[in-house]
Write a structure and sequence with these properties.
This protein is α/β, with parallel strands linked by helices and 242 residues long. The protein contains eleven helices and five strands.
């Protein structure tokens, strides 16, 4: 059961929910908000729906008992998941039972998965025998996209990968880093972290400012087929980094 109420001023931290899951009929859960228009057509909802359909619910919804109506529960967190359960015709769901009506924390404390961590999760799953098709179905992605994430760190130095493991670098940024030598990749990663700038344009600027002997052998003398920053933009970047 839940720990003592959090309102006590004894300096202790108390649990905000029961330790045990509670199985509740989906029909008995009342959302505290309505989904915005187009929510069910969004990529986020499609991913949730595909994941629940392929492997079941991973993160339990959070509910609070309606004290005025026994057997009714207010939904604090998990509105997309609840809609997915309804669409799939699932009658019951395991929920976390909250002890207060806090809805802020669940939306504030969200940890986005950086691309490198996503790569490692996919690589671990494939190493354990999960097919790329099954992963694609669970994540609502194309198989080619899953394979691209699986190969994310090919041509990336281990040191640069370690530096960028918790950053929001997109796959396009890694495509640009791959055009540099290992030493230059580390330098570029250090500059991106120092400026807290992990955009594709900044990565292209770093590549444009890279000397010929610091480019990967297959990329020397080539522009990579992508528009590069102008001399004025590079000069501005150099002033900012000075």
């Amino acid at each position: 059961m839940a720990d003592e109420p959090r309102g006590r001023e004894d300096g202790r931290i108390h649990l905000a929910f029961d330790r045990d899951f509670l199985t509740i009929p989906v029909a008995a859960i009342v959302p505290l908000k309505t989904l915005p228009n187009g929510a069910k057509a969004s990529r986020s909802y499609s991913q949730v729906l595909s994941s629940v359909k392929a492997i079941g619910l991973i993160e339990a919804p959070v509910v609070m008992a309606d004290e005025k109506n026994a057997g009714t529960w207010f939904l604090l967190d998990g509105h997309l998941r609840l809609e997915a359960l309804k669409e799939l015709g699932i009658a019951e769901v395991e929920c976390l039972l909250a002890s207060d009506d806090d809805t802020y924390t669940y939306n504030k404390r969200v940890n986005r998965i950086p691309p490198i961590q996503e790569h490692r999760m996919i690589a671990r799953a494939m190493d354990r025998g999960v097919s790329s098709a099954d992963i694609a179905a669970a994540l609502n992605l194309q198989v080619e996209s899953v394979l691209r994430r699986f190969r994310l760190l090919e041509g990336i130095s281990p040191e640069a990968a370690e530096m960028l493991k918790d950053t929001p670098c997109s796959m396009k940024v890694f495509d640009i880093l791959r055009q540099m030598t290992a030493v230059r990749q580390i330098e570029a990663a250090d500059l991106m972290i120092g400026q807290n700038n992990f955009t594709v344009m900044f990565a292209r600027a770093l590549r444009a400012a890279t000397s010929e002997n610091q480019l990967a052998a297959t990329k020397r003398g080539k522009g990579g087929g992508k528009p590069t920053p102008s001399g004025q933009q590079i000069a501005r970047m150099e002033r900012e980094l000075a």
